[in-house]
Amino acid sequence: MKIAILGGGHGAYAAAADLSEAGHEVRLWRRDAAALAPLVQAGSIVLKDARGARDVPIALATSDIGAALKDAALIVLPTPATAQRDIALAMAPHLVDGQVVFLAPGTFGSYLMARWVKEAGNAAEVAWGETGTLPYLARKHGEREVNITIRAIRLPTGVYPARKAEAAIARIRKAYPSVHGCGDALSGALMNAGPVIHPPLMVMNAAPLQHFERWDIHNEGTQRSVRDVTDRLDRERIAVREALGQGAPHYPLADHYDNDRWMYGDAHKQLVKSGDWREHIDLHTHRYVTEDTELGLAFLASVARYAGVDAPIAHGLLAIVGGILRRDLRQGPRTLETLGLAALPPAELARRLHDGE
Fold it and tell me: What is the DSSP string of 113-128?
């Protein structure tokens, strides 16, 4: 299958190497041509995992998004939500009927990117899927080298518009067999693990993150008190899903820490063992704040308000991070209020998510 991978981060390089090795024709697009140059020159990515290190040829590495998207059956975006608008506008002139876009994860980006592409003048019939986490726990070790610690074994995925879900899920599964449908875009967005895992880690590790040059939030930073807050926040997420009529499995975050039933299986121990997450995290600029808190947690809190679910942990964490950033995060760019969806009756919101705008 012809697959376009859009992005230049850990997940994009992991996806390009992994899917190329699986036999797909992969085109990797990165807007930064200079940063892409080592991969263009070598024509391959060094992939490291439990099997060792090997060179994996990539069909095309390009800073021309049109060349990457041409004839692509599947378009994979393992990119931060903060980049989605720019990427949507860059994609808009090139998308055609029948293509499937897979956001991993999405932060309700499936709905928003479809809107932005349409506003840019492209009315192509495209299906947009989003899942709850990256298909990989991965970190780049060099300009064209990536280490995959673990691959996801369960990827619940929502589709916008939901009327295209069956065909879209079938297409995505050709690349990622671990994908399974979980309903519409809102259901997919409420599977996003980042806004549940990362805000408590940022808030409750704020002092050591600012004091030490490198700090592992998943090792020393994950103590019982942090887990207790994370578990409470996740119960709020699950209560929102249940209030909206979204069915199980809800993938409780406790499974990430306690057993092998989560999206990555028994991942937490391997994540800590790798040492790749002992890093510098800036509380003002890191994506755990700009993406998972300012966008993702604010989105979750707004859906809780919409569903009438009490969510004191979500709102409290937002207030504290807002204090760190010195701004009010309650009315962020991805709240239902800002998106013009909060006033819709539930039946109308469900219809819009099923049929499209």
Answer: HHHHHHHTT-----EE
The ranges of the chain annotated as CATH 3.40.50.720 are: 2-189
pLDDT tens profile 290-309? 999 999 999 999 999 999 99
Question: Residue 21 to residues 24, 40, 134, 165: CA-CA distances in angstroms?
Answer: 7, 17, 18, 27
pLDDT tens column, 277-287: 578 899 999 99
Q: Do 129 and 172 touch, CB atoms closer than 8 A?
A: yes
**Residue bearing tokens 């991070």:** 321
Q: Which pLDDT tens digit goes with each residue over 42-69?
A: 999 999 999 999 999 999 999 999 999 9
As a whole number of angstroms, the distance between CA 340 and CA 327 comes to 22
Domain 2-189, classified CATH 3.40.50.720, yes or no = yes
Beginning with the edge strand found earlier in the chain, give each strand of the sheet holding 52-57 in spatial order.
Answer: 52-57, 44-49, 145-151, 136-142
Instruction: Find the distance separating the first CA and the last CA of the chain, reported in whole Å.
Output: 29
* All residues at 6 or more sequence positions from 40 whose CB lies less than 8 Å from its CB, including other chains: 61, 62
Distance CA(130)–CA(282), nearest Å, equals: 27
CB 180 within 8 A of CB 251: no
CATH architecture of residue range(s) 194-355: Orthogonal Bundle (1.10)
> Is residue 33 over pLDDT 80?
yes
Question: ∠ CA(109), CA(61), CA(154), 5° rounding?
Answer: 45
Question: Looking at the chain, which residues constitute the CATH 1.10.1040.10 domain(s)?
Answer: 194-355
Residue 135 · residue 15 · CB < 8 Å: yes
Contact predicate 300/243, CB 8 Å: no
CB 185 within 8 A of CB 158: yes
Task: List the strands of the sheet with 100-103, edge to edge.
Answer: 60-62, 25-29, 2-6, 74-77, 100-103, 127-131, 155-160, 179-184
Tokens of 151: 């691959």
